[in-house]
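Record filed below.
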Amino acid sequence: MKRFRIKFSFLLFNALLFLLCDGGMILSFYAVCVLHELGHIAALRLTGRELRCVELSFFGIRITSAPAADIKRGAAVLLSGPAVNLLLYAFLRAADCCGRTAVLSLAAGLFNLLPLSSLDGGALLDMLAEGRIHERQFRVCLGVLRALTALALLMYIITEMLANVPR
């Protein structure tokens, strides 16, 4: 790996996290995130790709690597992080332990499969669209899907906030 970068926004994120969450939640959160990224790194290594940069910011962890040799290898790398989260969830639920970590792992796995560009699911859809005969139409459909997903997330957040307002 050539570079490891920590942006100031990551430090800000950590400050907020430590202000708003208890130690157990923070430990569970970071365990889930690290395992997710280790899933990507393991898949990179198994597919023979070079890890170029890991960047930590307020918006998450971004891994930069050499381009995939083919779509199957690229998809394997993109899906490996969420797969680790979902497997961890299944393992922890089967063992009937670490309930909070299990739920965070499930949430991280499913969230990263959303079709948003900065997430694994969106990156996979972008990769599948690239160079296709109907790429333009596919990207228009992707844009609509992404807008609807963002709207649904926003509506969920607003609904949750309104449900928790003291009366």
User: Anything to note?
Assistant: DSSP finds six helices and three strands in the chain.
